[in-house]
């Protein structure tokens, strides 16, 4: 009986110690920005940050969001009709915020559009571009929602918009 108790105690202590090690290594990995991880960015945004890097690479542009010190959050934005923000402050120099109610109802394509637009500001340093074609469609993903051009970001026009976003003009 004593032997069973010793074995059970040993297994309990070993498993407890192992869990503690796992937690420490996860913290360490998070701090070191493991592949596919973006420090201080909500995990739900990670696929879009990675997609942004991948789209830039397709155009021979090196984008490293892991080391850019850009933070990213999904939370309520109190300003009506604002789906995303790129804000700057001394404590958080490059912060992407996506509106929670928008996020909850948005399609993958809409989420991509907003996150790429905000990373266009925060990472690429792009300003708004209100240009439009003769049919009134916006020519840039960097359009503001204040003007009268119409969005035309679809699976068929996506490449054209992303080529413009990453253009080196």
Instruction: State mean pLDDT (0 to 100 scale).
Output: 83
Strand content: 5-15%
Q: Helical stretch count? A: 5
- Describe the global form: globular
What Rg is obtained from the alpha carbons, in whole angstroms? Answer: 22 Å
Helix content: 40-55%
CA-to-CA gap between the ends?
Answer: 78 Å
Question: Major sheet, described briefly?
Answer: 3 strands, mixed
Largest sheet, order of strands side by side?
Answer: 1-3-2
Low-confidence stretches: 5-31
Count all strands and give the number: 3
The SS-based structural class is mainly alpha
Secondary-structure element order, N to C: HHEEEHHH
Overview of the structural elements:
It is a single chain. The chain is mainly alpha-helical. A 3-stranded mixed beta sheet has the order 1-3-2. The radius of gyration is 22 Å and the shape is globular. The protein starts with a helix and ends with a helix.
Tag the structure with descriptive keywords.
169 residues; mainly alpha; 3-stranded mixed beta sheet; 5 helices; 3 strands; globular
Task: Describe the structure in brief.
Helix content is 43%, strand content 8%. The chain has helices at 2-32, 46-58, 100-105, 108-122, 158-165; strands spanning 71-75, 84-87, 95-99.
Write the layout of secondary structure elements.
Elements: H1 2-32, H2 46-58, E1 71-75, E2 84-87, E3 95-99, H3 100-105, H4 108-122, H5 158-165
């Amino acid at each position: 009986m004593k032997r069973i108790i010793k074995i059970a105690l040993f297994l309990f202590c070993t498993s407890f110690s192992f869990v503690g090690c796992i937690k420490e290594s996860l913290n360490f990995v998070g701090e070191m920005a493991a592949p596919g991880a973006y420090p201080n960015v909500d995990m739900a945004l990670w696929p879009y940050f990675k997609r942004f890097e991948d789209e830039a690479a397709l155009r021979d542009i090196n984008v490293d969001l892991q080391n850019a010190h850009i933070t990213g959050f999904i939370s309520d934005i109190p300003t009506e009709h604002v789906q995303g923000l790129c804000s700057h402050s001394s404590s958080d120099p490059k912060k992407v915020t996506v509106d929670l109610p928008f996020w909850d109802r948005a399609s993958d394509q809409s989420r991509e559009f907003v996150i790429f637009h905000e990373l266009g500001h925060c990472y690429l340093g792009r300003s708004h571009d209100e240009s439009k074609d003769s049919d009134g469609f916006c020519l840039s993903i960097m359009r503001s929602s204040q003007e009268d051009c119409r969005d035309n970001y679809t699976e068929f026009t996506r490449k054209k918009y992303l080529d413009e976003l990453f253009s080196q003009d």
